Amino acid sequence: MRTPQLVISLLSLSLLFLFHSSRAATLDPRCSAADHGSNLRVFHVNSPCSPLRPATGLSWAESVLRMQAEDQARLQFLSILADGKKSSVPIASGRQIIQSPTYIVRVQIGTPAQTMLMAVDTSNDAAWVPCTGCVGCPSSTVFDPAKSSSFKTVGCQAAQCQQVPNPTCGGSACSFNMSYGGSTIAANLSQDLFTLAADPIPNYTFGCIQKATGSSVPPQGLLGLGRGPLSLVSQAQSLYKSTFSYCLPSFKSLNFSGSLRLGPVGQPIRIKFTPLLKNPRRSSLYYVNLVGIRVGSKVVDIPPAALAFNPTTGAGTIFDSGTVFTRLVAPAYVAVRDEFRKRMKNAPVTSLGGFDTCYSVPIVAPTITFMFSGMNVTLPQDNILIHSTAGSITCLAMAAAPDNVNSVLSVIASMQQQNHRILFDVPNSRVGVARETCS
């Protein structure tokens, strides 16, 4: 049987949408286009096409600071889970910090179908949606199991009941509790028909949320693209062979379109790979072996131990679509930052929030190359610099990993991935990266 392929159109990394959020009041006519064939559109959560975007416009600086706060919370969340700890993430006082994925996708659930805009997260597995009667769910749009003829609960004896965190049994039905960012959710393990564009996935196992606390839960739920047993990659293995790739467009593009391809069909042939590494304590994360970083032509001095993979502590490097700006462990970031500043010939340095290497004069940045086992990924200026809309401030769009938690995890984030095809080939335990103009 031919391996199906799902091509998902993206509406962008969309930092530009954030920087020009005053335009969001006018809905882009492209937003109303229906899914068709095997094409399913994905929206940035803050895009004009997203009903979940902020209601008020933000200045450029406010937008950057907000994204930094969200990234900071996400890094804390990923670091704690990478270390296998169950504790909740500390939330900064006096500010609402949201640990939220960047993209949402339209998913049809049930028979007849009910449309949910679910967040897509490459670092989580289980899908979950707010259901009728949920206490504390942040969205007025909920899934109603009573209206679906194909809905069923999952019993305590089912294998899936042992694959969710903290399973419990009330009668014969399986329930579970989990933390997500600074939130907790309680859900009933359920199954129903999930339809992605024209691709039906029967008996998809997901959590039907009954109670939620905190501000981290994506309003209409989450669809996990990690590599654990309850992720889309695993549950639709017969359909997509545990293979997918995406290409995120430049946030400066006016076209706002990229693609997510599920299945081995249509994936690039000319692409370099690096091995995927397994952390049994955090099986969903896509770990890779980062062995060095080059700024311009110089390989900066980073102690090998700072980049080493350690499944016991969670140390290492991951690819993550939900973090906006790359975070490097402190020794790696300091080495990159210092060499970057040296290349700027001592131009005056300023800061903006968590960005400590900003300039108010025009600069020409060197390339930065991530050196992985088996492949190098060289980033041009568009992937490493963030500019204010007025052109008065330019910052190196990277930062050090948070130092108030287990700060051993480096994250290659979505801005640094833009205009690259990132191919996750789980059966062959490898990830590939190739330059591609997505815009």
TrEMBL record:
InterPro entries: Aspartic_peptidase_A1 (IPR001461), PEPTIDASE_A1 (IPR033121), Peptidase_aspartic_dom_sf (IPR021109), TAXi_C (IPR032799), TAXi_N (IPR032861). The keyword NADP does not apply. GO terms for biological process: proteolysis. SUPFAM superfamilies: Acid proteases (SSF50630). GO terms for molecular function: aspartic-type endopeptidase activity. Residues 103-434 form the Peptidase A1 domain. The active site is at D121, D320. It comes from the Eukaryota. Transmembrane segments: none annotated. It holds the Pfam family TAXi_N. Residues 1-24 form the signal peptide. Keywords: Aspartyl protease, Disulfide bond, Glycoprotein, Hydrolase, Protease, Signal. Gene3D superfamilies: Acid Proteases. Belongs to the peptidase A1 family. This is Peptidase A1 domain-containing protein. It comes from Punica granatum.
